[in-house]
Amino acid sequence: MSVIKRIFDIICSLVGILFLMPIFLLIGVAVLINSGFPIFYFQTRVGKN
């Protein structure tokens, strides 16, 4: 039974990723158009390293 649940979980995860990927790409393009580069915010932090 746990093998069936594992396969079901993997299939649902893959379907969810494939469904959401175009939405996330559109959000990234919208941020790029609105704010410009970079899409991800990088911050230098004072710390140990």
Question: What does this molecule look like?
Answer:
It is built from one helix and no strands. By secondary structure, it is mainly α. The chain has a domain at about 10-35. The radius of gyration is 18 Å and the shape is flat. It starts with a helix and ends in a 14-residue tail after the last helix.
Short note summarizing the structure:
With 49 residues, the chain is mostly helical.
Structural class computed from helices and strand pairing: mainly alpha
Radius of gyration: 18 Å
- Mean pLDDT over the residues: 89
Which geometry do the CA atoms define? flat
Q: Could you spell the SSE succession in H and E letters? A: H
Low-confidence stretches: none
For the termini, the CA-CA separation is 47 Å
Largest sheet: none
Strand content: under 5%
Annotate the secondary structure layout.
Blueprint: H1 2-35
Key attributes of the depicted protein:
single chain, 49 residues, mainly alpha, flat
